[in-house]
Design brief:
Length: 304
């Protein structure tokens, strides 16, 4: 937090939650309290948790090998054997959706973490040092922010080539400017605070001051920003895979599943388009609801 008034507001909000939940103890009480106060956030958390569970335990949840083909089951409709039908190669759609959750969450979480890490370093360096370093860094950030996230990710993905690692890097780089801006704005105000002056007075080095005193006070807005951007990174990965620039075969990807089926089979086998589209919509919807709840919890001024 950047000033004492905001710190008091956050502390007062935490005390209010504690008083309201005084009659319950443990994680169950805290969960019930959050469900009552942030029902939409709880729904988003449930959706996100279900996808994480499916991704982690895909070997158990998926009834079939997502890569195994069966020509006899080509374009099979949903049934007891193929819960969500089969694609044109006879591969089980449900199993591919479950394993596709691994790809989407791995790219989403990896790109968000990598983008936030570099954004924190760039923003902290720019805001704390100032001068010509801040001027140069901000001009570079202005250039990067002139392009939308998807456009810049397309450029990076086309340059790096299709692979899981390159997709994470291609999506992470466009996230750096937004994170750097937030960190810089907080750093500019924090570096003039009395506790920073006191640290300098006792002989503490500038690097230690930046990492020990300034950086921890900028983490709350970064948590909010990262949670809010998670859905965007997952949607961007699906878009890149749809265009053939994301995660390549044989990895099952929701975007690639749409790309393979949208043009030829949307009328004859609509389940090949409907179910991947529903999966993408649900995970983005869930992460957005969860991000809004995290924002409200960490910044009471934003509560509706």
């Amino acid at each position: 937090m950047t000033d004492s008034r905001i710190d008091f507001t956050a502390a007062d909000h935490a005390a209010e939650l504690a008083r309201a939940g005084a009659h319950v103890t443990g994680w169950r009480g805290a969960t019930l309290l959050l469900i009552r106060r942030y029902p939409l956030g709880a729904i988003g958390a449930v959706i996100f948790t279900l996808f994480v569970f499916a991704a982690v335990f895909a070997d158990v949840v998926a009834p079939m090998d997502p890569l195994s083909t069966n020509s006899r089951a080509s374009l099979a409709a949903p049934s007891a054997t193929y819960l969500l039908g089969a694609d044109f190669m006879g591969r089980d759609v449900f199993s591919r959706l479950v394993y596709g959750a691994r790809i989407s969450l791995a790219v989403g979480l990896g790109a968000t973490a990598l983008g936030c890490l570099f954004g924190i370093l760039v923003g902290l360096l720019s805001g704390y040092l100032g001068g010509w370093i801040d001027l140069v860094v901000q001009r570079v950030i202005d250039i990067m922010q002139s392009l939308p996230l998807l456009v810049m990710a397309l450029v990076m993905a086309a340059s790096l080539g299709p692979s899981l690692r390159n997709t994470i890097i291609a999506i992470a780089i466009p996230l750096v400017p937004n994170v750097a801006r937030v960190i810089r704005s907080n750093t500019l105000s924090l570096r003039e605070m009395p506790f920073v002056e006191a640290a300098r007075a006792v002989g503490m080095g500038e690097l230690r001051i930046a990492l020990r005193h300034v950086l921890p006070n900028t983490l709350a807005p970064i948590i909010v920003l990262a949670t809010a951007q998670l859905g965007s990174t997952i949607l961007t990965e699906a878009s890149l895979s749809f265009l053939g620039l994301g995660v390549p075969e044989p990895h099952p990807s929701w975007g690639r599943m749409l790309s393979e089926s949208a043009a030829e089979y949307v009328r004859t086998a609509p389940w090949l388009v409907i179910f991947p589209g529903v999966a993408i919509s649900l995970i983005v919807f869930g992460t957005n609801l969860l991000g809004d709840a995290v924002r409200d919890i960490l910044d009471p001024r934003q509560r509706s």
